[in-house]
Amino acid sequence: MLHIEELYIQPETTVLDAMKKLDETGLRILLIAPGGRLEAVVTDGDLRKLILRGGQLSDPVRLAANYHPYSLPLSERGAARRILKEKVIDALPLLDNNGCVADIVFANRLDVDNRRRAGLPVVIMAGGLGTRLYPYTKILPKPLIPVGELPIAEHIINRFCGFGCSEFYLVVNYKKNMIKSYFNDLERDYQIHYVDEDTPLGTGGGLSLLKGQIHEPFFLSNCDILLDADFGDVYNHHKRCGNLITMVCAFKHFTVPYGVIEMGEGGSVLAMREKPEMNFLTNTGVYVVEPRVVEELEPGKKQDFTDIIEHYRAAGERVGVYPVAESGWMDMGQIEELDAMRRRLETQNG
User: Fold this and answer.
1) Highest mean pLDDT of the ranges 115-129, 147-161, 248-262, 308-322
2) Which domains does the chain have, with CATH numbers?
3) pLDDT tens digit string along 59-69?
4) Mean pLDDT in residue range 166-191
5) Beta-carbon neighbour count of residue 106 at 10 Å?
6) DSSP-assigned letters across all residues of 131-183
7) Backbone phi and psi for residue 127, each to the nearest 5 degrees, phi listed first
8) What does the alpha-carbon distance between residue 198 and residue 326 come to, in Å, rounded to a whole number?
9) Cα 155 vs. chain centroid, distance in angstroms?
């Protein structure tokens, strides 16, 4: 059982370390509470806003913290559900008469659904050969490879359905009849349109087959990843920023397991770093896309969606980023990653 003290964090703790602590606890909130007295809270959303303002992972977390958080006196615990719903927050500290944190009420433990609705169409690129997952994909197409009790494509669809999405376009090619048969046999409350890709067009070129079919912004997803993200908030961010395309990107922290040498002239050692740490944003393969992008694609041209992004970025169009924590991104692109995804889903489903 987690104790409240395990959620305490110092104001000078780095943003990176705060992100790690949020991942460790899985509760999406940390407290700045010297001596137990609540001064501020830090959520994953607070950290995201700081990064989008140009903040660095090395910055102190006090720059991201909310010093005017919602809270309730311990005696008013009964109002917690209403406050959580009204303020659309995940956690609510309860304070004693001295302003010290006595307890925390979490939305997910009260069956309060604070997810923002999105309701957009979703395009899933489900036509690839899945060569990195061979020999699994010799038998099954990648979208039907099971992760736990369900195939990966169904996991992806179910996550979007949780945010009000009900219309899905599956761009299919390799073993497409198996994919169609599986989903046609399901009892489902969402609609699937199959888009047949006769020749491989890449993760971007296949979108040209949707010309004239999508007239509103849509989510685009590869079929080998799962995101633990608030897709409604992703879309709100996309609209607020006026982006043509928004990329969902995950922070990646990597420690080089060796001493790294920088060589100077004549074979001299210019610098040495022992097990340096690297931090960077990685493309998860999930996007929000304006319909104009589809209409402007050249029919039948093979290209990846990253090529399309670079085309618009170079032309001065607004391409933005929505950052998520590393733990919120699961990738099954390779066999060892598939096994890791299965283990994580088993843990989450407890």
Assistant:
1) 308-322
2) 4-109 (3.10.580.10), 122-348 (3.90.550.10)
3) 999 999 999 99
4) 93
5) 16
6) GGGTTHHHHS-GGG-EETTEEHHHHHHHHHHTTT--EEEEEE-TTHHHHHHHH
7) -110, 0
8) 35
9) 14
